UniProtKB/TrEMBL annotation:
Protein's gene: gcvPB
Organism expressing this protein natively: Prevotella multiformis DSM 16608
InterPro entries: GcvPB, GDC-P_C, GDC-P_N, GDC_P, PyrdxlP-dep_Trfase, PyrdxlP-dep_Trfase_major, PyrdxlP-dep_Trfase_small
Family statement: Belongs to the GcvP family. C-terminal subunit subfamily.
Keyword list, A-Z: Oxidoreductase, Pyridoxal phosphate
Protein's recorded name: Probable glycine dehydrogenase (decarboxylating) subunit 2
Amino acid sequence: MNNKLYGNLIFELSHPGRRAYSLPENRFGHHPLPDACRRAKDAELPECDEMTVVRHYTNHSENNFGVDNGFYPLGSCTMKYNPVINEEISSLKAFTDLHPQQPVETVQGALEVEYNIQRALASITGMADVTLNPYAGAHGELTGLMIITSYHQQRGDTKRTKVIVPDSAHGTNPASAAVCGLEVVEVKSTPEGLVDVNDLRPLLGDDIAGMMMTNPNTLGLFEKDIPEIAKLVHDCGGLLYYDGANLNPLLGAARPGDMGFDVIHLNLHKTFSTPHGGGGPGSGPVGVCEKLIPFLPKPHVIKTKEGFAIEDCRLTEEYSTADNRIGGYLGNFLIILRAYTYILSLGRNHIKEVGPLATLNANYIKECLKDDYELPIDTLCKHEFVFDGLKDKSTGVTTMDVAKRLLDYGYHAPTIYFPLLFHEAMMIEPTESESKDTIDGFIKTMHVIAKEARETPELVKEAPHSTPIGRVDDVLAAKHPILTYRQLIHDMESEE
Ligand SMILES: *Cc1c(COP(=O)(O)O)cnc(C)c1O
């Protein structure tokens, strides 16, 4: 069996009795666990020698694609370079060996990191204070919305059960609102792709808890009517929420706090480097304006005369995020540490270059490719933009085909068929970390694929040709999920 073969599970390489370890002889005698604590049957674990294990996982890792393999222009995800120093710092044993329940005197360094990044993020976003507790962007959204509802409830303003969400929002926005028990009211976009202020006005009233906005929005456009929107939402008594998952292009250019936002979440695992994807560990800090500080969830790191301390739940009777946890301890500490390293290594001056460079790169690609690819909203974009497939629709080559063909050329595909506003959406985000050579190489390849689509469309429609497996059935796994190994073996046997 070819050990490069996909789907080769470590279980299939197992031989009873093989071992990859040898434990020292037991000097303390045999003390069996009481029967009540023992499994009825031994766990079915793979039994392999060390070389088999190492090769198995090394070969699988070679079938993977990451930022370290090649250009990864996945829109709305900010797949930027993750500096190696982040990994070095976050692997220091002084950090990895900490326990969240250690006495605070023994973890002053870790608390200082948390406190400092709380302050750094507050300063970058223009908010008064920040909680690092949420574990992902969506978790940050939920936390932020809970802060908003806590605020209204504590004022006895119990009518506010609705939240306004733009039709172009990331799917997590309405989902988080629903989890928070809020009713979602959709506001439409203008043909230019921005929130339609005229559609917004009649939605506002004393039942509105707040409005969520993403800026730059899902089309990569700057919402230029924010001052007016902020005034309208505040005038009706609502609070304004900023989905800052994609803050990258704003770094050094503008601050949500200055625009009138009351709550913001950030995705450290996008804007502040740190590896992500595949559901890996994330971090979605939430920043709030002054009046919402009492509603930040606990625990929270504060600085006192004696050093850094943890403010914990007061556990009062009243319902409020102020007396609730939204996670176990102080967030995903090692992810926070990577982001802190990233912020410190760029420093106050260089972090300001991130936004403008990410914006320049995106606009450069957009302008170079818009003759071959349909650009439905032809305007200055921020860090990303959306094509609506190839310009020449007569070839029958779809966005899916272009995405698959890119794999043959060693590029990760852009985000496709999202946002849902266009049929053949292709969302490209280069980030600031790519060189001009890399970006030019991508542009050239996209031109080559457009030419292939005109001249040899079958070549594109049947791509990829060079990857270990060709086209997979996208919906099979969703419709017939096989979630256990035993099930897989069983099915394979019954097919024979
Ligand atoms: C990625 C993203 C989210 C969700 O973040 P997760 O960490 O995946 O939960 C929310 N909003 C926007 C605009 C995003 O791009």
